[in-house]
Amino acid sequence: MTSDTARWLVTGSAGMLGQDVLTVLKDAGIEATGLGRADLDITDAEAVLAAVTGHAVVVNCAAWTDVDGAETAEAAATAVNGTGVRNLAAACAATGARLLHVSTDYVLPGDATEPYAESAPTAPVNAYGRSKLVGEQAVLELLPESGYIVRTAWLYGEHGPNFVATMLKLAAQRDTLDVVDDQHGQPTWSSALAERLVALGLAEQAPAGVYHGTASGRTTWFGLAREAYRLSGLDPERIRPTTSAAFTRPAVRPAFSVLGHDRWSEAGLAPLADWRDQLAEAVRRPAFAGLVAVPGKD
């Protein structure tokens, strides 16, 4: 497979990550079809087979992402994150396409103290995580040699609502912000993840299975907010630490979402860069830089 002959399909292409994947593919000169939710219902098996036919690689960015909403609509979430993914995997098996499926740290229990290996036992703590695990199991079952599960976490980017954008917007509205400091993870820039997904799709000798697509290093939401402020020319002291107990949410959040990245070496690829380096590059982009006006800053 070469970049000028293989045709790719990106499902969920209207979302934050999907848009970035299409941009990376375009920059690489790879022909790609992008289908958003309005274009393709992945719970429709016949429609999925028709859409996948003619493509060599499928990148699935389509998902139910309302974590709290899944608590009262688990069947609906599983229809998309489980049955929909099974439909994609079955279509790829029928047509010979490779599948790159984006999953989540939420399939893990979140109670570790050291980074989770790709082989760590799964044990979701909420409905969203359970729905995503159903999708992972379908990929592993139906595409043992050509299915790739890329778990990501704490994703932010230019094309959709996300934590970094929210923090920067709130700088103009509040003098101080209380941010959770007892959840640990790896803030990951969607553009950087998109580049790694495309690289994995082009790496023909990469073994199938689970990969962890998160930034290197680790921090907390508090640490992320402070660094975003510092990089944007704002006073990081405006961010104050608090605990998860201060914010009641319908869905339990994992306390520890730090993932290990050993699998990338088997694919001949480096893991994603440190979260600070990713954030420094991201906040220079107009979509982030334009969110906050800093006196005296051009």
Automatic annotation (TrEMBL):
Keywords: NADP, Oxidoreductase. Signal peptide: none annotated. One of its GO terms (cellular component) is cytosol. One of its GO terms (molecular function) is dTDP-4-dehydrorhamnose reductase activity. Pathway: Carbohydrate biosynthesis; dTDP-L-rhamnose biosynthesis. InterPro entries: dTDP_dehydrorham_reduct, NAD(P)-bd_dom_sf, RmlD-like-bd. Coiled coil: none annotated. It comes from the Bacteria. The keyword Coiled coil does not apply. Belongs to the dTDP-4-dehydrorhamnose reductase family. NCBIfam families: rmlD. Catalyzes the reduction of dTDP-6-deoxy-L-lyxo-4-hexulose to yield dTDP-L-rhamnose. This is dTDP-4-dehydrorhamnose reductase. It comes from Kitasatospora gansuensis. The lineage of its organism: Bacteria, Bacillati, Actinomycetota, Actinomycetes, Kitasatosporales.
